[in-house]
Amino acid sequence: MNFQEFMKNRTIVFDGAMGTQIQARMDLKGTPPDHLSITHPEMITAIHLDYLRAGADVIITNTFGANRLKAKEIAPDALIRAAVVCAKEAKASYAKENDRPVFIALDLGPIGTLLEPSGSLTLEDAYDLYKEQVLTGVDAGVDLLLVETQTDLVEAKCALLACRENADLPVFVTMSYEDNGRTFTGTDPVSMAVTLEGMGPDAIGFNCSFGTRQMLPLVEELLQATRLPVMVQPNAGLPDASGHAQTDAAFAADLRAFVEKGVQMIGGCCGTGPATIRALRKVADTTGRKRTVPAPQTRIASFAKTVIVEDDPVIVGERINPTGKKAFQAELREGRVDTLLREAVLQTEEGARILDVNTGAAGVDEALMLPMAIKEIQAILDTPLMLDSSNTEALEKAARAYNGKPLINSVNGKEESLAAVLPVVKKYGACVLALTLDDDGIPDTADKRVEIAGKILSRALALGIPKENIIVDCLTMTVSTGQDNARITAEAVRRVQQELGLKTALGVSNVSFGLPNRAAVNRTFLQMALEAGLHLPIINPGDRQMTETVASYRVLYGKDKEASDFIAKYAQMKNAAPAATQKETTLYSAIAGGLRTETEQLTRALLEEKEPLAIIEEDLIPVLNEIGKKFETGELYLPQLIRASETVKGAFDLVKEKLQQEGTGVSKGKIVLATVQHDVHDIGKNIVKIVLENYGYDVYDLGKDVAPETVLAACREQDANFVGLSALMTTTVVSMQKTIALLKQEIPDVGVVVGGAVLNERFAKEIGADYYGKHPTDTANAAQKHFRNRRTPL
Amino acid sequence: MRKALAPWIDKADIYRFLHVHGEPPEDLQLAVEQGLEEVFAAAVFRFVQKEAVLIRQNGGISLDGEIPLPYPSLEKLFQNSRTVYVIACTIGPEIMRRIKRALLTDAANGVIIDACASVVADAYAAYLQSELPGETTMRFSPGYGDVPLHLQRDLFAYLDITKRIGIYLSKGDLMIPEKSVVFMAGDGVCETEEAHSLCANCTNDCAYRKEAQ
Questions:
Q1: B-chain residues within 8 Å CB-CB of A645?
Q2: CB-CB under 8 Å, A119 with B97
Q3: Contact criterion met (CB < 8 Å) for B176 and A118
Q4: What is the mean pLDDT of chain A?
Q5: Which CATH architecture has domain A19-286?
Q6: Of the candidates B28, B157, B176, which has its C-beta nearest A639's C-beta?
Q7: Which residues of chain B fall below pLDDT 70?
């Protein structure tokens, strides 16, 4: 009997802790437990046998840490094979005593190193680590795969992919939760269920965590969030000073409650033993399961937030799209994500609950850029994302890198699109935006658009993509080219829901193209579409008229219960502070005071009188220098310095705009910035970046933990010969020294400024730096000196 | 937790990180209060600790005979100790996300929250130390003085820190999330502690240097 047949309609008992049982038998003295499968195989076999005799249906191999990063002294392959031999021997011995079918699960514990974007381990490397273990385990003859004690959802996803793509065995995935109802990295049970469910595990659940007593609400939440079988394998109390104090009877009583609610797989983690499993066997054999499987829902999730698309509109932010935005396009071509990240944060603050992410522009390799953008956004934000590209490779890579369940934008009715995109949607369990167009273009009737939506739905269903994962975009056509266009689209929106039972999305603003007062047309069309039942308006959340229309609609149609969202957002409107009184300000006082509007007004006035370059040299830079001096002498403090730097940016932008109109170069020079290899602190470097940018330099920020070779490559690629390096720790100053040595060797005229808490002037010279930046403004002074001495692009 | 940490939150440190000299202006004081609110709203406080026996053997010291500490500064600091408390604590990863978001849209506020978060993490370490029985020496972390940062690896394994409270070590032995502290404190008092305290002995004029009290 294979395991999938065995698990049908049965409560399964997994074994208890391996580590606890080893510690009861010997003092490990720092030896990794996985080594004992080779050094003490009889002991590991005996532990397995004890669990089988206690009634476990599944024993888990002694391979928790058997991956290439953790297991350094003995190859993981040898550890896994030895562990499976121990499990098999126990199984064979048990077969002589009892003919009950029992199974072996390959234990796949966490790698122990944080993955991108929070850490430095790449998804590809993490995947390879799991793949190696899976291939060996399958070859050694395990019956199922158990990914366990995961705390980072993207690692769990990576492990699941490695299992699914390299084995044809059942896969179970469990994560460890804390008493705040989240994993260490912030994942809640619903986002975990939504993300993993579509990628085909056979069961999901919890293990380890914080003991059974307070777990019931989490277990209930998970049971209501997934249609998959649920597994729970908790600790017997917290694994610390409390000493796993829970009794076997109390543990079993708690797990009985879980089984009654519908949990199908139970077992024990730290602190449990054969007696615990004996008690669980009894629970499994004597407890009826009453599982109410939840109804399917359209859900899009990040690692920590899930949006459920119901009959209540959800704003999708549309601004992360470089189309028609030259500066944004240029940034993406250079691999920079500043605007992209700022737009992600701002749109979320403005009320977007999903963000469309499009990085398509001439000269941008989307297959590289889109996944990178996804990771960068997810390092700071938990808003669920819509992955937007016409490049299938980019969509596939982004869906793989995405930490959560994405909405893929898009598929359409063309055969080529269906064949390319739907398999990606299926593989990653994603939602997909289905555009109602085909080889004949966008139909001019609602009938035909509904027909195309139906075609896409049937093709998706045939591939095993559930209906709830299809969201139809009935496509907005401009009324300038046909006055029925808006009505047709709205009718299609209504019928797609009524006739196909699908959710809908719509980009709205195209409707007014070619008309005056577009804002009025847009918000009226939005209203039409909402009334037709639109679920996902794709709009600019910074457009108040549009967001107010959505907010008002939600009140008027009773979606916003007791108008609580509306009141929370708009109650302050009548109390808004009056506009600041106009008073005489100088450019210095406006910038130093962080007065952006006044700064821009004064700059505009200057532009009437003077040449743009003269404004930079005679007005802006002297003001910045003055502010810098006052900061150094303690008259201004750091937030003031930064606020002034940000304020001056508006002035610089105006001057640059004028220079561009005149066809003049605007860069004062190119600077590469990095926090050196092995150092993860980048706040100081980020402050320096703000200051340098506002002095008019083009700054290429390579981020943190940057290898010397990467800094060199960036200098070459950008033709930059000035570099700023940051290090917080004494230990990472070594990396700084190596980077400087490499740069000096390869780029003789390079200038390097260094900064960081542990450095000083003397130390900076010792490691070969040209300049030391005690304060952010020192770095700007160093750059001025450097470019004055060498080449001045201005 | 905010109440418990209140006695340990050193606002002077926050202002020092923000390069404020003298009395901070009212608007900054307000911004710092709001920064602290934000930190406490985002923080998830977690710690793990173990009591190690300080073994003196063959002219050296070690924790439980497992982790050798061949460093003069620790030999001096623990000269009167029999027990060394090893503690790791963190205020979690969410606050770093908030700081990074603020740096994108309101960088001045971002550095204020960052300074507040650093001080709250340190206050948490001080609070945990205050909960230890009896008097203890100063808190000492790997990377201080002559103790290499690499000792982090041993302490991480000793306390099983990654599994228990979710702090990871980077390749360069730095902690993720950043607002985390790992320290040792011996029981008893070290008479010469003041004399070899880190800031007093250090020649660097660094942002973290504490002025003599």
A1: 107
A2: no
A3: yes
A4: 91
A5: Alpha-Beta Barrel (3.20)
A6: B28
A7: 191-213
Contact B111 A642 (CB under 8 A): yes
Comparing alpha-carbon positions, the chain B residue that sits nearest to A679 is B172
Residue of A nearest to B32 (CA): A639
pLDDT of residue B174: 87
- What pLDDT shows up at residue B198? 57
Q: Which residues of A touch B109 (CB under 8 A)?
A: 639
Distance from the B154 Cα atom to the nearest Cα atom in chain A, whole angstroms = 10
| Residue in B103, B165, B204 nearest the CB of A686 | B103
Burial state string for A72-98 with b = 16 or more CB within 10 A and e = fewer than 16: eebebbbbbbbbbbbbbbbbeebeeee
Structure letter (DSSP) for residue A618: I
The complex scores an ipTM of 0.84
- Nearest-CA residue of chain B relative to A152? B166
Distance separating alpha carbons of residues A148 and A155, to the nearest angstrom: 11
Segments of chain A assigned to CATH 3.40.50.280: 667-794
Which chain A residue is nearest to residue B15, measuring alpha carbons? Answer: A637
Which site among A113, A115, A184, A648 would you substitute to test the B interface, given the most B Cβ atoms closer than 10 Å to its Cβ?
Answer: A184
Judge: B171–A729 Cβ closer than 8 Å, yes or no. Answer: no
What whole-number distance in Å separates Cα of residue B33 and Cα of residue A189? 33
Contact B108 A646 (CB under 8 A): yes
Domain ranges of chain B: 2-191
Residues in chain A with CB shorter than 8 Å from the CB of B168 are 112-114, 118-119
What is the reported pLDDT for A791? 52
Beta bridge partners of A753: A724, A771
Interface touch B111/A687, C-beta < 8 Å: yes
Mean pLDDT of A592-609: 87
**What's the CATH class of domain B2-191?**
alpha beta
Q: Where are the beta strands (DSSP E) in chain B?
A: 46-57, 60-63, 67-68, 83-90, 168-169, 175-176, 180-186
Domain with CATH 1.10.1240.10 in chain A: 579-662
Residue pLDDT, tens place only, A701-712: 998 889 999 999
How confident is the model over A142-154, as pLDDT tens digits? 999 999 999 999 9
- Mean pLDDT over residues A199-213, rounded? 91
Cβ distance B108 to A186 less than 8 Å, yes or no, reads no
Q: How far is CA B165 from CA A109, A148, B89, B162, B207, in A?
A: 16, 17, 8, 6, 29
- What's the CATH number for A298-311+388-571? 3.20.20.20
A186 three-state secondary structure: coil
Written in H, E and C, the secondary structure of A231-262 is: EEEECCCCCCCCCCCCCHHHHHHHHHHHHHHC
DSSP letter string, A637-702: -HHHHHHHHHHHHHHHHHHHHHHHHTT----S-EEEEEEBTT----HHHHHHHHHHHHTT-EEEE-
Residues A485-534 have pLDDT tens digits of 999 999 999 999 999 999 999 999 889 999 999 999 999 999 999 999 99
Contacts of A404 (CB under 8 A, 6+ apart): A153, A191, A194, A195, A300, A301, A302, A303, A378, A384, A385
| Contact residues, chain B, for A686 at CB < 8 Å | 103, 107, 110
Do residues A175 and B166 touch, judged by C-beta distance below 8 A? no
pLDDT at residue A307 tops 80 = yes
Percent of chain A with pLDDT over 70: 96
Q: A285: distance to nearest CA of chain B, Å?
A: 33
Residue A664, pLDDT score: 64
**CATH, domain range A667-794:** 3.40.50.280
Q: What are phi and psi of B3, to 5 degrees?
A: -65, -45
CATH 1.10.1240.10 fits A579-662, yes or no: yes
Contacts of A685 in chain B (CB under 8 A): none
